[in-house]
Write a structure and sequence with these properties.
The complex is a heterodimer of chains A (541) and B (254). Chain A is mainly alpha-helical and 541 residues long. Chain A has helices spanning 19-23, 28-56, 67-103, 111-133, 147-151, 156-183, 196-228, 241-275, 282-296, 311-323, 325-339, 348-371, 373-379, 383-413, 419-445, 460-490, 531-540. Chain A has a single domain (24-540), classed as Cytochrome c oxidase-like, subunit I domain (Cytochrome C Oxidase, Chain A), CATH 1.20.210.10. Chain B has one domain: Four Helix Bundle (Hemerythrin (Met), subunit A) (Up-down Bundle), CATH 1.20.120.80. Chain B has helices at 2-6, 10-14, 30-65, 67-75, 79-104, 108-138, 160-166, 172-214, 224-249, and strands at 148-151, 154-157. Classes of the chains: A mainly alpha (541), B mainly alpha (254).
Chain lengths: 541, 254
């Protein structure tokens, strides 16, 4: 290790000590660390619920927990993982940390609002945790009326309020990113010189700003109906529960893109940097992020093919759902073309990227089965659906998050983690994931419905495989907690650019100083320039 | 901060080289800071449009389905209060615009006075809303178990049980009609309640802005907070411009 690799004497982590300097910080990097800690706690909680679900499903009889407890477990697993882990994970942790540095700014446009959105998120989380403490909620994360508004006697109100509140955190984060990307770019950082991570986050922010208010108002209507006895969705008073489903999915389908788009942005960075090659078809990859955001808003009713919507509406939504495959495929093909004849390597972040490519492809292609009207009737509400969206949300979004975290960890904390253990963990996650969820495609296809705590004997083999896979997957997720924490003190010093990657974030010290840049950088080249960049630096000397 | 209040033009005191005291560290120039705030506010208002949009969608759908019940319920609301409130709110938008203008011209007291007048008008709107709500409570027009819809002098309670208690037959059509008027009032209270909540938030914002204006924080160089509160206030006003015809006016002529 050469002597130039040392931790700078003053950086964002040691610039200010004590709890207050962290809890009242307006530094986007410290807020990202706060988010990192909090989303990790929620990920652990949501994971515990999954452990309960997989334990119960190991045997056909409902012997581990009662049906009611099982309902509460899968509801909380969904609510926590979707609203409190997946949606904030990449944008609020990696996006918060990297967006200002990647575009050459000192901070986000609104640092106080950034801190506020962290606290709004935390308050929403407390509501959901208190709902758990009071006995949980059993409606499923979808809160379908009239069950949620009239029938369920569990804690719907605190959970719904928690989601309502957390939504505003998501809105404010998206708003902050949009303004920052528009107004805070360094001189020379034109739109088509932005890293693709920024394009992906711009698209995500649009969805957050335009979609999240719709779930907020939907949950508010559910709240007034349940708390005050108003009748908006109540069929006994002529209200329409299907209206609730439309409003719910108008947000919750685009929400899937809130989870996956940032991971797609991470993937573009990983693939280009670990292939040592300019990304293939930059503008297509950039614009496909926006296309996914736009298409994402006009496909929601494919969740409702069996809810009694008209055949014509179903046909239109089926067609539109197919069209989402186009921008998604543009990305995958461009990444593959980037790998072609690249100088590719097998560092841990890239292992996650390879895993992502395969899992995202399977997740995307099985989505086409569900967008097809005829097959969806057969597959609706079976484990096929569960497997499909876990391939996207876990195989896609979490693989992207972990890949990104491994890639930027040395930037965030200035030290390297164990390469050996991190590779083991990446392999465990990939193998465990496939073993958990691939059998669910099969068991769903042959007819096992989701959300039941007991099932006929013939489904047992596939469920045991799934539970065994889940324990491997859990091990793969726990391992990083240990080597990441260990690296904070004992890890090898990383230096500003341990990967030889391109991008402004690799030109500042690791960890970066509070103001990010000593002088505002001036950008003169397109992103992912590898050889020419070195040549230029030599010329300057 | 008190010295700023004595010298209304802080830019002149500090000279050209020094930063404006309101310039935050992450921005290079005041104009960059202002452009960021303006874009942020418009993005926020876009969010608000979609927030109210869910309710407007529900209203449009149910009005189409249950047209007659909605017309009957809508015409039972006192038009004059709504009309007065519309005038009050449009007036408050005018005074708000004048407050922004006064801030742009560095007129400290004029800014404060227009802001206070805006707050008075906003409070008057909420006061009238309280009168309207109280009236609905009296007539049992608040949806829920105590809801009663009266028409043509014949009292008829909502729900089958209540109808049985009343001791006379209610035809299924009439019962449905009553239930559908309840959907109207559910939406009425949710929409106007959410609008009123936005007004209360606006009044809170304006209290802070008025205090800042009183302290002399604003000048022709820096008046972004006044302008942003103005944008918010006009947005809340525009929501009412849509609520008023939807809830009070349309189909009244028939």
């Amino acid at each position: 290790m050469d002597a130039t690799r040392k931790i700078p004497s003053l950086h964002y982590l040691n610039n200010g000590h004590g709890l207050a300097s962290w809890l009242l910080t307006k530094d986007h990097k410290r807020i990202a660390v706060l988010y990192l800690i909090t989303v990790s706690i929620f990920f652990f909680l949501g994971g515990l619920m999954a452990v309960g679900i997989r334990l119960e499903l190991t045997t056909p009889e409902g012997d581990f927990v009662t049906a009611d407890t099982y309902n509460k477990m899968f509801t909380l697993h969904g609510v926590i993982m979707v609203f409190f882990f997946l949606i904030p994970s990449i944008p609020a942790v990696l996006g918060n940390f990297l967006i200002p540095i990647m575009i050459g700014a000192k901070d986000l446009a609104f640092p106080k609002i950034n801190l506020l959105s962290y606290y709004i998120y935390a308050v929403g989380g407390i509501f959901v945790l208190s709902a758990i403490a009071m006995g949980g909620v059993d409606t499923g994360w979808t809160f379908y009326t009239p069950y949620s508004s009239a029938a369920s006697n569990t804690n719907v109100v605190p959970t719904a309020l928690g989601i309502f509140i957390t939504g505003f955190s998501s809105i404010l984060t998206g708003l902050n990113f949009i303004v920052t990307i528009h107004r805070m770019r360094a001189p020379g950082m034109t739109w088509f010189r932005l890293p693709l991570f920024i394009w992906a986050h711009y698209a995500v922010s649009l969805i957050q700003v335009l979609g999240t208010p719709v779930i907020a108002i939907t949950v508010l209507m559910l709240f007034v109906e349940r708390a005050f006895g108003f009748g908006i969705f109540d069929p006994a008073r002529g209200g329409d529960p299907v209206l609730f489903q439309h409003l719910f999915w108008f947000y919750s389908h685009p929400a899937v893109y809130i989870m996956i788009l940032p991971a797609l942005g991470v993937m573009s960075e990983l693939i280009a940097n670990f292939s040592r090659k300019k990304i293939f078809g930059y503008s297509f990859v950039a614009v496909s992020s926006l296309a996914i955001a736009v298409f994402g808003f006009i496909v929601w009713a494919h969740h409702m093919f069996v809810s009694g919507i008209s055949v014509y509406a179903a046909m239109v939504f089926s067609f539109l759902s197919f069209s989402v495959a186009i921008p998604s495929a543009v990305k995958v093909f461009n990444w593959t073309a980037t790998l072609y004849k690249g100088s590719i390597s097998f560092d841990t972040p890239m292992l996650y990227a390879y895993g992502f490519l395969g899992l995202f492809a399977i997740g995307g292609l099985t989505g086409l089965f569900l967008a097809t009207l005829g097959t969806d009737i057969h597959l609706h509400d079976t484990y096929f659906v569960v497997a499909h969206f876990h391939y996207i949300m876990v195989g896609g979004a979490i693989m992207g998050y972990l890949g990104g975290l491994h890639f930027w960890w040395p930037k965030m904390f200035g030290r390297m983690y164990s390469e050996f253990f991190s590779r083991i963990s990446a392999i465990l996650v990939f193998v465990g994931f496939n073993l958990t969820f691939f059998p669910q495609f099969v068991v769903g296809y042959i007819g096992m419905p989701r959300r039941y705590h007991a099932y006929p004997d013939e489904f047992q083999v596939l469920n045991v495989m799934s539970s065994a896979g889940a324990s491997v997957l859990g091990l793969g997720y726990l391992l990083p907690a240990f080597y990441f924490l260990y690296s904070l003190k004992k890890g090898e010093v990383a230096g500003p650019n341990p990967w030889g990657a391109s991008g402004l974030e690799w030109e500042v010290p690791s960890p970066p100083p509070t103001e990010n840049f000593a002088v505002t950088p001036r950008v003169t080249s397109e992103p992912y320039e590898f050889t020419p960049r070195v040549a230029k630096e030599v010329e300057l000397v | 901060m008190s010295d700023v209040a004595v010298h209304p033009a802080p830019g002149a005191v500090h000279g050209h080289a020094a930063h404006h005291p309101a310039l935050q560290h992450q921005f290079q120039t005041m104009s960059q800071q202002k452009e960021a705030a303006v874009l942020g506010m418009w993005a926020f208002l876009l969010t608000e449009i979609l927030f109210f949009g869910g309710l407007f969608l529900a209203y449009a759908l149910y009005r189409m389905w249950y047209h007659d019940a909605f017309v009957a319920a809508s015409t039972s609301i006192t038009l004059s209060w709504g009309l007065i409130n519309t005038v009050v709110l449009i007036g408050s938008s005018l005074t708000m615009a004048l407050a922004v203008r006064a801030a742009q011209f560095s007129q400290r007291m004029a800014t404060v006075n227009w802001l206070i007048l805006t707050m008075v008008l906003g409070t008057a709107f909420l006061g009238i809303k309280v009168i309207e709500y109280a009236d609905k409570f009296e007539h049992h027009h608040v949806p829920g178990p105590n809801y009663i819809w009266e028409e043509a002098g014949h009292a008829a309670a909502a729900g089958e049980a209540a109808a049985a208690d009343a001791g006379h037959e209610v035809s299924p059509d009439a019962a449905n009609f009553q239930l559908h008027t309840q959907i109207f009032f559910s939406l009425y209270f949710t929409m106007t309640g959410l609008h009123a909540l936005h007004m209360i938030i606006g009044l809170g914002l304006m209290t802070v802005i008025t205090w800042m204006a009183w302290k002399g924080r604003f000048s022709s160089e820096y008046y972004t907070p006044v302008e942003m509160s103005g944008l918010y206030w006009h947005f809340v006003d525009i929501v009412w411009i849509f609520l008023f015809p939807l809830l009070y006016l349309i189909d009244r002529a028939h």
